[in-house]
Design brief:
The protein has 207 residues and is mostly beta strands. It has a single domain, classed as Galactose-binding domain-like (Jelly Rolls). 0% of the residues lie in helices and 36% in strands. It is built from no helices and 13 strands. Strands 1, 3, 6, 8, 9, 10 and 12 form a seven-stranded antiparallel sheet that branches. Strands 2, 4, 5, 7, 11 and 13 form a six-stranded antiparallel sheet that branches. It starts with 19 loop residues before the first strand and ends in an 8-residue tail after the last strand.
Length: 207
Amino acid sequence: MRIAVALATVAGCSFSPGSTAQRDAALVTDDATDPTDASDATVTDAVPDSLTADAQTDFIIEAESYTSTVDGTAVGQECTWGVESTVGGFSGASYMRVIPASGRTCVLANNECAQLIFNIPITVQGTYYVHARAYATGGGDNSLWYGVDGTPEATDWTLPMTSTWTWMTGTSYILAPGTHTVHLWQRESGARVDVIALTTSSTPPPP
């Protein structure tokens, strides 16, 4: 019972500084009660079959299936999140990258930094962990700010400079039922993100 969101089709588009791109997320769940639904045999569940869609606790979302983006507006930090597929090994249709890939740095995460935002409908109160599958090649593209419900963590994600897709795990959050947001903020332009996950396990999803 995985959440799936309509894929982005923003390759090649540009946003004016300070603009916000917004779209509706389409929630897709496995309806195990419908014996006529042939798709039931092929759905990959993100939580045990004993749980219903209403009790979903693990959310794995392709980065290009974001809910909204916000462009960076600070002088020297006018970046955005763009769709890219140059580096191999990503899942889904593509991945997201802070562009232009010039190493521009947001020293503090705030509304002047380029943001990538995911709305997630929590139905089960619990302790959740944020994970991201990311990629870095060097010191100019190996960090991101992250947080939940618009509040950035004081410590950024520093990505290993291995030129491989690697899962990063952040801090934990106690979340009540309702719609919550996972935010990624530009720290260094050029950083790449393939998948975002919000799960009740401190262990990231399989590679």
